[in-house]
Amino acid sequence: MRNTRLFVLVVCTLVSTHSLISQPVSDSQGDMGLGTILPDPSAMFDMTSTTKGFLMPRMNTAQRNAIAAPANGLMIFNIDLGVPQVWSDASGSFQWDAILTTGSNLGWLTVGNGGLVDGTDNFFGTLDPTHVRFITDNTERMRLTSGGELGIGTSTPAQRLHVDGVAGTPNVRMGSLGGAGNAVALGANESFVIADGNGDLEKRAAGTVINGLAWSLTGNSGTTAGTNFLGTTDNVALNIRTNNVDRMIFNTNGSIQRDVGGNARGTNAIDMQTERAAVTQVASGLRSIVAGGERNTASGDRSVIGGGNTNTASGLTSTVSGGNFNTASGSSSTVGGGSTNTASGSVSIVGGGSNNTASGANSTVGGGSSNTASGVNSTVGGGTGNTASGDYAAIPGGRNLFLTDAADRSFGFLSGVGINTMAISVPDVAVFGNADLWLANNDNAASQLRFYEANGAFGNFPGATNYTSFEAGAQTGDINYVLPLSTTATTTVEEGLLQLDAGTGQLSWVDPATAATTFAWSLTGNSGTIPGTNFIGTTDNVALHIRTNNVDRLIFNTNGSIQRDAGGDARGDRAIDLQTARVAATQVASGPLSVIGGGIGHTASGIRSTVSGGELNTASGTHATVSGGVTNTASNTQATVGGGANNTASALRSTVGGGSSNTASADYSSVSGGESNSASGVRSHVSGGQGNTASGILSTVGGGSSNVASTTQATVGGGGSNTASGTRSTISGGELNTASGVNSTVGGGRSNTASGLRSVVSGGESNTALAEATVGGGFQNSASGLRSTVAGGASNTASTDYASVSGGESNQASGVRSHVSGGQGNTASGILSTVGGGSSNVASTTQATVGGGGSNTASGTRSTVSGGELNTASGVNSTVGGGRSNTASIQYAVVSGGESNTAAHNHAVVAGGRLNTAGGLRSTIGGGEQNSMTSDFSTISGGAWNVSAGNYTAIPGGRGLTLTASADQTFGYLSNTGSNDMTISAANTAVFGNADLWLANNDNGASQLRFYEANGTTGAFPPGGVNYTSFQAGAQGADINYTLPTSLPAVNGEVMTSSTGGVMSWTSDPTLTSLRLNGATSVTNSRIVINEGHWTSQGTAPTAAGDGANLAAGVTVAAPSTDVAGLLTATDGGAIGTGVITVTYNAAYASTPVVTVTAANATSAGSTYFVSNMTTTSFDLNISTTSGNGADTYIFTYQVIEVD
Q1: Percentage of residues in the chain having pLDDT higher than 70
Q2: Closest CA to 373 of 818, 362, 622
Q3: To the nearest whole number, what is the mean pLDDT of the chain?
Q4: Residue 711: C-alpha distances to residues 380, 690, 742 (Å)
Q5: What value does the CA radius of gyration of the chain take, rounded to a whole number of Å?
Q6: CA 279 – CA 302 distance, rounded (Å)
Q7: Phi-psi region of 674 (alpha: psi -120 to 50; beta: other; left: phi over 0)
Q8: Pair type for strands 932-933 and 947-948
Q9: Structurally, what CATH architecture does the domain formed by 1103-1203 represent?
């Protein structure tokens, strides 16, 4: 409500008894008076009375509001409010404003009110549903709405208190808080006041707020896995501390470490050690692990150190479990523990011990000390001082045995106390040195020494191979046989019997007795028998039994069968059963022509079935074969089980070669070996391994475990839990891989998927290849585009046709035929775009290229950024060679390197430097800093703060030179420290500012300053017939400087002369007669050359010596042919200070010559030096020596000039 103080002067006219005065009267102006005949000229209506007042219309609020279209200024008396009101828009909108007077307590005064009655007349506000507005400086600051909402900074408050303001600027301040200090200790019932998303303040329990926003000291509940975490969201490591000391650090590359010491850890590495002697003793390899210990180094990718001290795992996937000073440097090498052991061969192992070395591929040293396994697949089990150098050589222990490089596949053991070493250089032998060989037993079965006959069969042994053996009988005492000393018999009969001397155990050869008769088979054999006539056997229907110790050893039955004993059912026609024990009577060779070669408990019930040996085997199919093993079954026609245990070949011509619990259940299926393998597809094959299944037609599993080849011609070579489910799909090995596309291939690795037609994943982990795409390896790579390729690395993506990523991490090739070679976080999104490497680089358009570096962008068609950081090539065919924050923004623009340079016009070039801008057509800036060019075809080679606005200009360097737009075809160079900038506006001018011009040479040819005559011929210069005038220096003895005259000649014909100081002036002196050219010419009144220096030959070089303290006494002097100029070479004397070289002439000069000395190497240039004590016979060269190392060499060039 607007407070309006309206002062109304009501003039009441006294009403006289005269009737005229009591009636309204209008004067000549039209003004009306009541109670007066003279209305006041300022009023239209003047009422005058001393006994009555003015009474305006009285009505309540409802009646007032019913007035239709009230006029501005209409007044009434509101009987509900008890105040007069006027209809007014003084507040900015029409409303009924109360009319206040100066009486007390009718309104709120600016100086305050008093005498108010609480609850009656001391309120501030409105009596109707109207807002209360608070205004300062004619701007509303606060509003109390009719609904009771108070808004500060807002006219539409949404709550009881609504404070609004400028974003980012505080709105509410609390002057003080309860308690002392700033510490907050939340009690059980204390709460926070917080603002919700609308800015509304709410009271929340302290525990609820903390539990929802932070990790409580007493734990949190209701968190969401994968959403709530403890860590960082930017590229900053997370440090875990106790007692303000780092206890665990989670780095942004995925690595974990215990402290801040040492070099950076490798990507996804784990380093749990806290003590090191060098910064390199960390887990620096990719996914490497140091589980504990101290001073350990895991530098190979995926290398592991379990603990210990000063161990090193530098090979790929190498492991050191513990110990100290151990090294696993070979790929997949392992050191189990011990001290100072080395596993350097690929897949080599040292189990423990000390000073052992496994250097051959797949070599093993189990333990002991000072043992070496250097041959391929060689083994030393333990002992000390043993060496297995031959391939596949083995030494189980002992000491000081050497199986040399020639002892391939040999075995050896040397017993002794260490003084009798032995070397074996013969392959394929087993040697026991200094030891007896005992075939011991404690199971009541004498052991045998077997000699097998020659055999060339591969696979199970012995199979059908026979042997001759020796074993001990039930002896009453020890027996030792001493072999014969030669092969010559002791009698006259060769090839006799071997007899034993019972007393000595000596064996010897004797003549056998001839006890056999003509009609019997002699115990020593018969001669003169007739084949087919003489035989051993029966002539009636009775079997022939062959016995030893009165026990049947062989029975020849009348049906042609042969058996070893009388047990079991009848044998089949012409069957052979050589087993002697069985569990059931049916376990015999009951099939016609069946064969049981030996063993126990076999059944050969199929026609022509065969069980060669073993135990409890069954061959029930026609022509079925079980070669050996235990509990094997060949149950179908021509089914075969080679050996092993619990194997089954149940289908036509199915085969199980060996192993355990294998099944070949489809026709022509086969399992070579392994355990629990199944070949259930027609012509399927499992070579070995465990739990493998080949269920598709012509499918194959080579080995490994839990592999599946489920479709036609699918192949799994090995590994674990791999599945080849696509037609003709292939998985070579690895783990958890899937080849589901037709003709798809997975070479190996883990959790890889080749799901598209002809897709390929060579290896790595968690990689994916879709249609005809290829992933070479790495981790979590994806090739989803047609014929796309990811060669390796981690988290790389080739998502479009023919796109490729060679390696690195988190790279993307999303443009057709785009390529990323490596690096991290790079993107090639343009067609045929390329990123060579680096990090966070982008090649976003057709044929754009980024060679490497970081955060570079090639966004122009065929643009190139070779490397550097934060560079941009956005123009067509633009190029940035490297550097940082450089920009080539127009077509064919080039920035070679430097920092913050810009090439902003067609064919503009910035070669390097910093903050340079080439903005003209084909303009060039070679380098320097903050050089700027807006002109065409111009060049600034370098320097700083140079500006060229003229076309075809050139600034080779310097500082602060400006060639304006008027200075076309101008060359300029300004030597300037920054306080003497220069501007050139002249065209076709060459300017050197603040600089001397030296025409130098070091080729014995003095340079010339040439002035060519006027010439207008284009092409080769100088053209024929164009002459020049030149200046060049003669063979001077000292520097000469000429100062030109300060004015033109006074008259024609004056000549230029010089003072002895080289000051030139004009003269008309006619006495100039001759010029002295050298020391041998005479001078007559020479004014052109006065007291010039010249050489006088000494004949030989001077001599020189150092002071012997700061400089060594010996000084080398090398002089050219003039004998008065050459080199002085001195050596630091071992002390720091000013050293002195004294140079003595071979002949004295007539007067003291001038000596000049200049530094000739970097050591001399870095020292302080000067010449002193110049005489007619010698001079001193003083040199400051700062190292005092006795080794630095100082070389100076000297010149001696004689002055006339």
Answers
A1: 86
A2: 362
A3: 84
A4: 45, 19, 10
A5: 57
A6: 20
A7: left
A8: parallel
A9: Sandwich (2.60)
The answer for residues whose C-beta is within 8 angstroms of residue 502's C-beta and 6 or more apart is none
**Angle subtended at Cα 561 by Cα 558 and Cα 563, rounded to the nearest 5 degrees:** 110
pLDDT tens-digit readout, 725-746: 999 999 988 899 999 999 999 8
Residue 942, class by beta-carbon neighbours within 10 Å (0-12 exposed, 13-18 middle, 19+ buried)? buried
Query: Tokens 């489809």 sit at which residue?
Result: 666
Q: Residue 535: its pLDDT value, please?
A: 80
* Residue 29 reports pLDDT greater than 80: no
Paired tokens of 778: 């790495």
Instruction: Say yes or no to pLDDT of 171 above 80.
Output: no
Selection from 1113, 1140, 1135 nearest residue 1186 by Cα: 1135
Q: Which long-range contacts (CB under 8 A, 24 or more apart) does 1185-1189 make?
A: 1185/1110, 1185/1111, 1185/1132, 1185/1133, 1185/1135, 1185/1136, 1185/1137, 1185/1138, 1185/1139, 1186/1136, 1187/1132, 1187/1136, 1188/1132, 1188/1134, 1188/1135, 1188/1136, 1189/1132, 1189/1134
Average pLDDT over residues 521-527: 72
User: By three-state DSSP, how is residue 273 classified?
Assistant: coil
Q: Which of 1155, 1154, 1156, 1107 is nearest to 1132 (CA)?
A: 1107
Count of C-beta atoms within a 10 Å radius of residue 923: 29
DSSP codes, 774-790: EE-SSBS-EE-STT-EE
pLDDT band (50, 70, 90) for residue 378: very high
Report yes or no: 547 and 539 within 8 Å, Cβ to Cβ.
no
Under a CB-based contact definition with an 8 Å cutoff, are residues 359 and 375 in contact?
no
Q: Which residue has the higher pLDDT, 651 or 515?
A: 651
pLDDT band at 988 (very low <50, low <70, confident <90, very high): very high
The letter for the amino acid at 650 is S
Q: Is omega for the bond preceding 462 within 30 degrees of 0, making it cis?
A: yes
pTM over 0.85: no
Whether 1085 shows a pLDDT value over 50: the answer reads no
HSE at residue 999, side-chain half, CA atoms within 13 A, is 12
